[in-house]
Amino acid sequence: MSQYKAYPAYKDSGVEWIGQVPEHWEVKRLRHIGRYSNSGVDKKSYEDQQTVKLCNYTDVYYNEFISNDMPFMQATASAHEIEQFTLKKGDVIITKDSEDPSDIGVPAFVPHDMPGVVCGYHLTMIRALNDNHGSYIHRSIQSDHTKAYFFVESPGITRYGLNQNTIGNAPVALPPPEEQVTIAAALDRETARIDSLIQKKTRFIDLLKEKRQALITHAVTKGLDPNVKMKDSGVEWIGQVPEHWEVKRLKHLISQCQNGVWGDDPLEDGSDTLCIRVADFDRDNNVVICNPSTYRQITKEHQDSRLVSKGDILLEKSGGGAQTLVGANVRYLGEEPAVCSNFVAVIKPSKKAESAWLNYLMASMYALKINLRSIKQSTGIQNLDSEQYLDEGVAAPSLDEQATIAAALDRETARIDALIGKAEQSITLLKERRSAFITAAVTGQIDLRGEQ
């Protein structure tokens, strides 16, 4: 931000974490520049109330601006609630409570009147007073200083919330009204530019991930030789395979598939066993990452029958959801003996399967949703029928060729992963710049009055 100049003169703000502000600015509490009230309009519908569109918690949390084209849910509200909480141009809405204190005080701005749309439960509506502008208040609440203030001032143990005094006492570094408009407009332009860059880099990452998966699928179903003679596999999802590959059931490539165990609470006396959970699955790289590690007290009988060793593959048996189907697989590369939890099964490759290659093959099956036909739904939880899943048809080359394919995929995926990592780091830096720019602007550390 070195291209931006500072203001000519500064004064002490009187607020330690804001520091100095431009000499002609004021520092006021939020209660003195805006009216604020908590909405009590919930998702339920009542016969004696009017039908409205409800702007709810997720609408605010995931959107910087609230607009008419958003898919609001339908609810009802009383005449008084409609009068008080209908969204109007210039309103700012913030999240006021959550299980995570970092989710509190997230603001969204309403740039246009929205008749028929009402602010919902767990939200606080702020409406600027006098000549102050909601667009500037919105950006002020986004600043690192205000986020830190809300984080510190939101008490709780399992649920955290902002009370009315905390919201009203939030300090705001306040320029004159016309300068508020200028700053807010400059921030809109700069954040839109940064957001465009983030969107492009996110799309680039998505394309790299698609390329990565296509590379894996091609290698484990067609091999590495583009000139090899092919034959029909008879397996619909695979199609043609190299002529010298064997077509068989997945179960013929494994020697054991054993469900996990949860055991008892750890004794923390050195006798506990590492227990790998679904939460330890790195689904992007198909490996186990235990951070932090979970230890359980496991009987010797269960340790002997369910031992997870280096190179074993772990299969998710229960869990999943609408976006992530059950049936993900990862490879254990640790040296420490372990077991897996009761939602996981340990798969030990047979003498006809190389561990890394088999892990890539199963990852390809998951990406293509071959596991979908083996999923059984039970009380909202997905369960994988492992017997049906392991009966799927696959094609396998020799052990030597499996090792060659796996080594080639290790090299190529590492190269793609490095590109993904650089793009993700770039996005992180852009987000940091975005946040720092907003904070600098609304505390007067940079002068945006000449920005058009």
Automatic annotation (TrEMBL):
Every Type I restriction modification DNA specificity domain range: 22-196, 244-423
InterPro entries: Restrct_endonuc_typeI_TRD, Restrct_endonuc_typeI_TRD_sf, Type-I_RE_S_subunit
Highest taxon of source: Bacteria
GO biological process, one term: DNA restriction-modification system
GO MF, one annotated term: endonuclease activity
Keywords of the record: DNA-binding, Endonuclease, Hydrolase, Nuclease, Restriction system
Family named by the database record: Belongs to the type-I restriction system S methylase family.
Protein name in UniProt: Restriction endonuclease subunit S
Organism: Acidihalobacter aeolianus
